[in-house]
Amino acid sequence: MFIHCGRDAFSDGALSIPDLSGTYLGEIVAERRRRLEETRAQVPLADLASRAEQRQERRDFAAALRGPALRVITELKRASPSRGLLCSRYRPREIARGYEEAGAAALSVLTEEKYFLGSLADLGEARAAVPLPVLRKDFILDAYQVYESAAAGADGLLLIVAALSEQDLRGLLELCRRLRVAALVEVHTSEELQRALDVGAVLVGVNNRDLKTLEVNLETSFRLRAKIPSTCVAVSESGIKTPADVQALAQAGFDAMLIGERLMKEADPGRALADLLAGAKTLATQRV
What residues act catalytically? Predict the structure, then answer.
């Protein structure tokens, strides 16, 4: 069994890490690295790698996002750095079932502990409740976390271009392929998009939220969509609130959208999703 052994397997060290000083993303990444070292001391990489390699069952995250209509990745998160606590009655199984019933194609589960109050246990609960593929939404910085994700049952994970050197991004993407875990490669600028394409990303997420400032602008998706090749699956993330937003993304040619905060603020996230999609369908019908 071949095991990538942490950052040194990918890059030359700290000099290759993007400068995130003074940003929200930098603060979160620093905390994630600290917690990663704690976890690494408790659970050996070899144990995780063995579980990841032996795992048989997979759900095809990429295939779930392909089709003639705009697909929906619905997010489960208890809290966020920008809005604080979103859901005091956070029950991943119940929320996952509601999303599936409302028409979600896949789930995204926040597993970062400090800022989003998430866990891998949340991912396991959501995945056990429905047959949908599940994305681990976290700040993946190290091969250890890829093995950890696969061992925990994730069908996909998020790789944030702004948080990774090119060597690390390339290495983590290759490890995902080997473990048969889909990688949604997230970008926010044209430069980040080019970096994602250069390393072979096929699932490209455009985050409308600037992770360095937490500001949101849906125009980011519209600006970058034309630059994403047709061979890639294009996903718009964050800031999607209204039926008009959904319809605009469909018309722009996105394959999927990832929506969470808009739904998690509601008492019944599944019902909120159903209402949003019904509103978008009504708009589409009116424009025909």
Answer: 75, 77, 137, 186, 207, 237-238
